[in-house]
Write a structure and sequence with these properties.
Length: 347
């Protein structure tokens, strides 16, 4: 059905808003098979946002941002991106028949994401600088040229993204106690918190503590200062000056939550666990949510009896080279006969 159709009552849509949809939203909330029971948290869930049409949570907000851009008369959208926003922008622009321009930082965008933006027909400009610089150029561009900025500083992006909170509450029947979420440009944690608060006002199902996690080498909010050269294997959240910094801190404080760091090692370990113990293949940044939960649980925080949700923000196919580099085993090459296959299997 799509986000606009499903949640029109909660979104700033009018009769003039085009009903764009690629079938975004309605993503699975999967109960943990092994990690939750091992931690003594039987009600641990993963919200699989990588099941959205372009493979990340960005589709929820992008569908609304593009629909509103069209409603407001724009023929061209622009964004800066570590990859997923650009893929989503390019896809929705294509489906709406408008142009998209994406600014990406050189060397910081995985091949899967770049290929998507190109395939969907975006004009892809690779900036010889980091995401934060690309975003400030994008903000300057829209002041001068007639394009709509569809980064998460566009309020419609957050409006669309907040719908994931509604789905979680509806599916569990109550708010989770804790929501673990990766933090990069800090739009998503802001959007989820807005969604939980709005839904609670209507339905009295409670709100969770917002538990945000930055990568240790790209942790401006935790450090309390911008990071000049953010560094992490999780390229999606390699951001040193998040646009939604203040609202992320508000989400943290109002919800009595926290924003903390996880190391690259913790991210990789969680990424492996998700694939091998749960059958969930995500991109590295997405594993920061589980890495955060494991960090706190290992440090003695007791979540037993809690309803806990980890948001898995993007699909593993986004970053196949990361997967190959971190593979625990290699394919076995054998001759094309049954004996060689059996021998390779040791049977
Ligand atoms: N996970 C993934 C897979 C992402 O792509 C992003 C952000 C985040 C988490 C963090 O979300 O920025 O709202 O705090 N990706 C942006 C992009 C920056 O350009 O695709 P956030």
């Amino acid at each position: 059905m799509g986000v606009i159709d499903s949640y029109a009552d909660y979104l700033p849509v009018t009769e003039n808003t085009p009903k764009l949809s690629l079938g975004e939203g309605g993503t699975p909330l999967v109960r943990s098979s092994f990690i939750g029971p091992q931690l003594g948290i039987p009600d641990l869930y993963f919200k699989l946002e990588g099941c959205n049409p372009t493979g990340s949570f960005k589709d929820r907000g992008m569908v609304l941002a593009v629909a509103k851009a069209i409603e407001n008369g724009y023929g061209k959208i622009l964004c800066a991106s570590t990859g997923n926003t650009s893929a989503a922008a390019a896809a929705y622009a294509a489906s709406a028949g408008i142009e998209s321009v994406v600014l990406v930082p050189r060397g910081d965008v995985s091949q899967g994401k770049l290929s998507q933006a190109i395939a969907y027909g975006a004009k892809v400009i690779v900036i010889d600088g980091r995401f934060d610089t690309a975003l400030s150029i994008a903000r300057e561009m829209v002041d001068t040229f007639n394009m709509c900025l569809v980064n998460s500083v566009n309020p419609y992006r957050l409006e669309g993204q907040k719908t994931a909170s509604f789905e979680i509450v509806d599916e569990i029947g109550l708010s989770p106690d804790e929501l673990f979420i990766p933090v990069g440009n800090a739009g998503n944690i802001t959007a989820y918190w807005k969604g939980f608060k709005e839904y609670d006002e209507k339905k009295q199902k409670g709100v969770p503590r917002m538990m945000g996690f930055e990568a240790a080498g790209a942790a401006p909010i935790v450090l309390g200062r911008t990071v000049e050269s953010p560094d992490t294997i999780a390229s999606a959240i390699r951001i040193g000056n998040p646009a939604s910094w203040v609202s992320a801190e508000q989400a943290r404080d109002e919800s009595n939550g926290l924003i903390d760091t996880v190391t690259d090692e913790q991210i990789i370990e969680s990424w492996k666990k998700l694939a091998r113990s749960e059958g969930i293949f995500c991109e590295p940044a997405s594993a920061a949510s589980l890495a955060g939960l494991l960090k706190l649980a290992n440090n003695g925080t007791d979540f037993s009896g809690h309803r806990v949700v980890c948001v898995i923000t993007g699909n593993g196919l986004k970053d196949p080279s990361f997967a190959a580099e971190n593979a625990e085993s290699k394919p076995l090459n054998v001759a094309a006969n049954i004996d060689s296959v059996a021998a390779a299997l040791g049977i």
